[in-house]
């Protein structure tokens, strides 16, 4: 048996209402690159947070270099040579590379003065040894993301890490930077370091790792050698087998008029990285178009682009005959686009506002609440809020209660009620059932189907493949900022969709079937 | 569970509900406790410094409320503070810190002084035009940081404060002996006396209380109505509570930020105009003992509610007036009165600042305190530093 750097046995971690890790066994050999693969919510990050000591497991044990540890925290993890590179870098943007790396372990002259030069020399030595080129004197906020990541890796090495945990390292990198990262990881391997790569990108897992462990719903599905597996096999392990659904599909799919048209839309995320790379969509009356995809492939930006919250850098948007390219959210609202946002805390509700005030968010300019900006019909607002609360069964002590004190399900009912009663021609529903219990999920789904039957065009953006397959009349797969395929839900299956979502294309055996 | 216990629990939870729902009661209670605490600690300091506690408090009371003259002092000083408090809380409701009411007030005051002294207009019309000229000048002084904030993301905390010093220096130059607005009849740094047609009538002679206090009261109503009864005010508060949700609701958030700071400047400008038209009848350099700064405290003590601003301004005015009497009576030096004022402000502001900071961090107050305490005790080599991009959502 090869030397094990880390062994995790029977790890259980529960959070209220969910078992994130359900008896996970995981081991890492010395000097290997081990991929940890799984869908969003499969439990990858939780497992690694347990290993790094950020979470205390409810059960199970961690064995490092043959010694079992029970009482465990990040300080100890660092002493035992575990270093973690988070997806969101933990760097002080206004300090230099050297200052960031030495932070907390500053070398000193005569016990008090900082010896910056010593730190820089050491960093340059690391940089040389592991082929991780960085400019030790540059300021973090002036560096590209790829170099910031190298800084994070050197920081971990500087603290004596033998085992590196990289959380979704390629999510922020360009193709070229991914290549550099791969080379650096191989160099680290040569030097005897072990690496755990958290990812949901199949191609990178197969291309970079020695072994791959697949998690699904908090359990280990299996560990395979990268050399003996295929992206197809991994996709199947990740998403599981097909389940049969029965929902009344729309009878007129593909025949009705196009309501919302998106052509070649490009947009950048908040960091200025282009994440929508040319989206084409035709959303028709009387249909639910499901957008399937793994998180981080541009869904969030697509949601904002089709609601006017994010500007496109290129491309056109039109609602019927109305050109909406470059328009703001207020124009979209007036044009009849309803929006159930993915993040109800951030977007959908003003949390400290009352139910009553939230009931008109985005609708405050409707004539019935007053035509002048210096007036608002208080009675009409109260009456309307009561109507929403009654019709959508929002459980609240009164309409004057803070939205923040409602349960998640009731908050969502409020948002859904507000948005579907607009008599919209388009509804953009992003993760509309996230965080809801079974009853709440059913309720929201029913409302969406009802709106479709009344003629609305619904864009359903969801990470939940089951929901997409169940609800949609057509399914579009988004991958790396593009719509890579459109499918009829009756004629596709999880395996095919899974592969499209995870790789953006089909392997040769599967390549027949509808084109985008 | 027995029905009795269930009923008891229901009663309990409904009374808890009531307490939670009655924001007014809760906020008022917190404020009163803070004031009591401040006076309590003030007593300890007075005792330790060897002053007679009763004598100081008697002095405070007499100076603030002991007779018509004292009351007049309190009301005169409260008048501009009502308006600067409104100025602060208006911007605060939009999520902005307007630290520059002092400067906006000076700019408003000098503009009013010019309009009121140089123009010849009929009575009332002259007053109104002079008043609004001051307001608009203040609004301009607020618009600058508002514009910089909205278009360039410049921190309004810094710009409003720095512009205050510009305003104070600039007005000082204008009325200095070689300045263009200096009144040559006097040596002092002040402008010419305003025309009779523009002056506010005194309403509590022989004190300096004038129509300015009525105007301040009117603006309390206007601000309240705007914030809580209009669509525009609703949108402004939405921006203050959640920029992202306001954006989602189709609010043009940048315009709101500019408007909020301009309106805050307008209110502070009115405060300065009131001082010129009702109290001094001219622009006097250094006329404000810090009314603009008092407005920050006043707005916070009022818990950003316009009606509360009346009471917080009265408290601040009373402390200023009473403090002078404490010194005159010889019970304690003015410094002690200043200490008392500072304590009241400190105790009232500290909890609301704590809460504000906790809210920004997305935590409850106990969680926040716990976190601060932990990070303070953690050794220097700790892992948690300011996190680059730490607000991003974690995937998986």
Q: Which chain pair shows the most residues in contact?
A: A-B, 65 and 38 residues
Strand content of chain A: 25-35%
Count of individual domains of chain A: 3
> Over all CA atoms, what is the radius of gyration of chain B?
24 Å
Helix content bin of chain B: over 70%
Return Rg of chain A in Å. Answer: 25 Å
Overall strand count of chain A: 22
Quick one: biggest sheet of chain B? none
| Major sheet: arrangement of strands of chain A | 6-9-10-3-11-12
CATH topology category name of chain B? ABC transporter involved in vitamin B12 uptake, BtuC
Number of helices of chain A: 17
Strand runs of chain B, count: 0
What does this 3D model show about the protein?
The complex is a heterodimer of chains A (516) and B (396). Chain A has 516 residues and is an alpha/beta fold. Chain A has helices at residues 44-51, 74-79, 97-102, 116-129, 145-158, 175-190, 202-208, 231-239, 299-305, 329-335, 344-348, 355-358, 378-391, 408-420, 438-453, 465-471, 494-503; strands at residues 4-15, 18-29, 33-37, 59-64, 67-69, 82-85, 108-109, 113-114, 163-167, 194-199, 211-216, 219-225, 258-268, 274-284, 288-292, 314-319, 322-323, 337-340, 426-430, 457-461, 474-479, 482-487. Chain A folds into three domains: 4-239, Rossmann fold; 245-336 and 424-516, P-loop containing nucleotide triphosphate hydrolases (Rossmann fold), CATH 3.40.50.300; 345-423, no CATH class. Chain A has a six-stranded mixed β-sheet, sandwiched between helices. Chain A has a six-stranded mixed β-sheet with strand order 18-19-20-15-21-22, sandwiched between helices. In chain A, strands 2-1-4-5 form a four-stranded antiparallel β-sheet, with helices on one face. In chain A, helix 15 links the parallel strand 19 and strand 20 (457-461). In chain A, helix 14 runs parallel beside helix 15. Residues 509-516 of chain A have low confidence and may be disordered. Residues 15-21 and 376-396 of chain B have low confidence and may be disordered. Chain B is 73% helix and 0% strand. In chain B, helix 4 crosses helix 13 (306-329). At the A-B interface, helix 2, helix 10 and helix 11 of A face helix 1, helix 9 and helix 10 of B.
């Amino acid at each position: 048996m090869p030397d094990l750097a880390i062994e995790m046995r029977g790890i259980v971690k529960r959070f209220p209402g969910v078992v994130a890790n359900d008896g996970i066994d995981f081991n890492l050999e010395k000097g290997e690159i081990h991929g940890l693969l799984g869908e969003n919510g499969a439990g990858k990050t939780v497992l690694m947070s347990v290993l790094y000591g950020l979470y205390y497991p409810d059960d199970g044990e961690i064995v490092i270099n043959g010694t079992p540890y029970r009482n465990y925290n990040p300080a100890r993890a660092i002493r035992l040579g575990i270093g973690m590179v988070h997806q969101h870098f933990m760097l002080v943007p206004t300090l230099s590379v050297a200052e960031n790396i030495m932070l907390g372990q500053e070398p000193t002259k005569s016990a008090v003065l900082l010896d910056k030069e010593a730190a820089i020399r050491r960093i340059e030595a690391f940089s040389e040894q592991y082929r991780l080129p960085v400019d030790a004197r540059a300021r973090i906020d002036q560096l590209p993301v790829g170099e910031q990541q190298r800084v994070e890796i050197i920081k971990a090495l500087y603290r004596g890490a033998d085992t590196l945990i990289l959380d979704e390292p390629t999510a922020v990198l360009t193709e070229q930077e991914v290549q550099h990262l791969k080379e650096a990881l191989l160099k680290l391997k040569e030097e005897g370091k072990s690496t755990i790569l958290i990812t949901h990108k199949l191609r990178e897992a197969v291309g970079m790792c020695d072994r791959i462990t697949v998690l699904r719903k908090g359990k280990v599905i299996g560990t395979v050698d990268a050399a003996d597996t295929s992206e197809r096999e991994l996709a199947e392990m990740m998403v599981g087998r097909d389940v049969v659904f029965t929902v009344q599909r729309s009878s007129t799919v593909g025949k009705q008029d196009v309501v919302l048209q998106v052509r070649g839309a490009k947009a950048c995320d908040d960091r200025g990285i282009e994440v929508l790379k040319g989206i084409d969509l035709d959303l028709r009356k009387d249909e639910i178009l499901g957008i399937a995809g793994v998180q981080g492939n541009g869904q969030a930006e697509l949601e904002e682009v089709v609601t006017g919250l994010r500007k496109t850098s290129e491309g056109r948007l039109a609602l019927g005959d109305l050109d909406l390219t470059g328009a703001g959210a207020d124009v979209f609202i007036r044009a009849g686009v309803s929006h159930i946002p993915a993040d109800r805390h951030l977007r959908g509700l003003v949390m400290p506002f009352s139910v009553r005030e939230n009931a008109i968010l985005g609708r405050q300019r409707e004539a019935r609440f007053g035509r002048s900006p210096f007036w608002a019909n208080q009675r009409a607002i109260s009456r309307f809020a009561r109507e929403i609360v009654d019709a959508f069964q929002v459980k609240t002590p009164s309409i004057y209660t803070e939205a923040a004190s409602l349960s998640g399900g009731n908050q969502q009912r409020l948002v859904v009620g507000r948005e579907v009663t607009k008599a919209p021609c388009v509804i953009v529903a992003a993760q509309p059932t996230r965080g809801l219990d079974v009853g709440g999920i059913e309720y929201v789904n029913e409302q969406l189907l009802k709106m479709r039957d009344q003629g609305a065009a619904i864009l359903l953006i969801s990470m939940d493949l089951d929901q997409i397959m169940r609800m949609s009349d057509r399914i579009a797969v988004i991958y790396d900022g593009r719509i890579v395929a459109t499918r009829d839900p009756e004629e596709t299956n999880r395996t095919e969709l899974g592969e499209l979502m995870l790789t953006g294309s089909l392997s040769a055996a599967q390549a027949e079937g509808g084109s985008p | 569970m027995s029905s009795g216990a269930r009923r008891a629990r229901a009663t309990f939870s409904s009374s808890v509900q009531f307490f939670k729902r009655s924001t007014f009661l809760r906020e008022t209670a917190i404020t009163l406790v803070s004031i009591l605490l401040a006076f309590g600690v003030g007593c300890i300091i007075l005792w330790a410094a060897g002053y007679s506690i009763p004598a100081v408090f008697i002095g405070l009371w007499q100076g603030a409320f002991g007779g018509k003259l004292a009351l007049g002092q309190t009301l005169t000083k409260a008048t501009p503070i009502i308006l600067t408090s409104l100025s602060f809380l208006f911007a605060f409701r939009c999520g902005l810190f307007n630290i520059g009411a002092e400067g906006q007030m000076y700019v408003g005051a000098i503009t009013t002084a010019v309009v009121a002294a140089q123009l010849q207009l009929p009575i009332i019309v002259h007053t109104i035009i002079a008043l609004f000229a001051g307001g608009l000048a203040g609004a301009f002084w607020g618009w600058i940081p508002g514009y910089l904030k909205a278009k360039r993301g410049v921190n309004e905390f810094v710009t409003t404060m720095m512009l205050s010093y510009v305003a104070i220096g600039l007005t000082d130059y204008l009325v200095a002996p070689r300045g263009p607005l200096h009144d040559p009849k006097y040596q002092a740094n002040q402008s010419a006396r305003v025309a009779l047609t523009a002056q506010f009538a005194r309403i509590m002679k022989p004190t300096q209380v004038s129509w300015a206090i009525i105007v301040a009261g009117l603006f309390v109503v206007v601000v309240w109505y705007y914030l809580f009864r209009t669509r525009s005010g609703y949108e402004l508060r939405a921006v203050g509570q959640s920029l992202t949700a306001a954006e989602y609701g189709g609010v043009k958030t940048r315009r709101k930020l500019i408007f909020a700071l301009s309106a805050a400047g307008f209110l502070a400008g009115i405060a300065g105009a009131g001082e010129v038209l009702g109290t001094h009848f001219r622009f006097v350099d250094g006329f404000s003992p810090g009314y603009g700064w008092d407005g920050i405290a006043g707005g916070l003590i009022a818990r950003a509610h316009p009606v509360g601003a009346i009471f917080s301004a009265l408290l601040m005015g009373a402390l200023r007036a009473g403090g002078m009497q404490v010194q005159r009576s010889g019970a304690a030096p003015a410094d002690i009165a200043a200490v008392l004022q500072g304590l009241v402000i400190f105790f009232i502001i500290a909890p609301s600042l704590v809460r504000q900071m906790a809210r920004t961090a997305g935590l409850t107050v106990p969680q926040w305190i716990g976190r601060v305490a932990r990070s303070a005790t953690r050794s220097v080599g700790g892992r948690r530093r300011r996190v680059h991009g730490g607000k991003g959502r974690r995937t998986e």
